[in-house]
Amino acid sequence: KEDRQVQARIHSPDSTMYLFGAFDGHGGPWCSDVVGQRLFEYIAVTLHQPNDLERIMQEAKRIMANQHAHSTTHHHSHDKTISNTITSLLLHSYYNPYKDTRNSKIKDIHQMNLLKHIEDAYTNIDHDHTDIISALESAFIKLDRDICAEAIPVDTQPVDEDLLQICTAGSCACVALVKDDDLYIANCGDARAILGTIDNEGNQSVINLSHDHNARNQSEVKRLLSEHPSNESHSIIRSERLLGLLMPFRAFGDVRFKWPANYLREYLQPYYKKGDALPQFYLSPPYLTVKPEITKHKLTKKDKFLVLATDGVWDLLSPERVVQLIFNHQKGIQSFDRFVLHKSGSTTTLKLKEINELLLAR
């Protein structure tokens, strides 16, 4: 229960943009929960024009100030409205089917950092020369930076274990942005995006729009090795895992592979329950990046559907098989025989292991 999917819509002066995301959590659901809640907000900030950002800042500050004044007597209303204030101003529609499990303290921290992001974007971003590709990349990087920094205590404050839990877990992300007939895919990790297409003769085919960031991608292996001293070439990737531990080579969170060693010892080790918080051969961090690989595709009438899915799908089905199943479904063709546990009249009770074996054989 670590995967998430989110959808949103953004209005710009000249068009409407649509966002779709698949988020694959690991080490627990906390990071994918938060990335699903926050990433589209950060993307929207980089895509809004300065006059829109100024209006959003003023309205958000007004509402938050009013709610702060009444927080003592309207605590529950405060929590709910604070968490939705800026989101509703940035995103004209937002669909997330998962319950927001953040407590009011964390929601307020996230909202304040989002407001800072809006202020920074209003002041520093050259919106006349910012394209969608650079906007997506900067949103991924900025959100991850905030997630990892929020767990570091200020001055003499203690470590917040809830914030630490979020950034210690991790999440891959595959995001699609559609503007007119342009499709952008921003991917970090091993979730995947494909297009199902059909030509004039009715032939079905697959267009792969992303690459997995793991040890099976030789370009990704070369990138990773090039970013570290040559004497680490045999220790960075072991058993097809980053430092022998992590499958994806790009992800949100996972501060065990990003923070300096002294941060891991000081902030994470006292709360880490799985042994040494410092991975073996941890010599030149960061080893993990959230920087997405971004592709652009011009949509045509031949493109029929987009699939965003986590590795749980791709480990079992090839892109070609997924496309075939969807086309068959659209035509009303049953792709598999109906699965029946018992023959007619049978009273045999099957164990879960036996059911699993039957499904795998099918």
UniProtKB/TrEMBL annotation:
<dbReference type="GO" id="GO:0004741">
    <property type="term" value="F:[pyruvate dehydrogenase (acetyl-transferring)]-phosphatase activity"/>
</dbReference>
<dbReference type="InterPro" id="IPR015655">
    <property type="entry name" value="PP2C"/>
</dbReference>
<protein>
    <recommendedName>
        <fullName>PPM-type phosphatase domain-containing protein</fullName>
    </recommendedName>
</protein>
<dbReference type="GO" id="GO:0005739">
    <property type="term" value="C:mitochondrion"/>
</dbReference>
<feature type="domain" description="PPM-type phosphatase">
    <location>
        <begin position="1"/>
        <end position="362"/>
    </location>
</feature>
<dbReference type="InterPro" id="IPR001932">
    <property type="entry name" value="PPM-type_phosphatase-like_dom"/>
</dbReference>
<dbReference type="Pfam" id="PF00481">
    <property type="entry name" value="PP2C"/>
</dbReference>
<dbReference type="InterPro" id="IPR036457">
    <property type="entry name" value="PPM-type-like_dom_sf"/>
</dbReference>
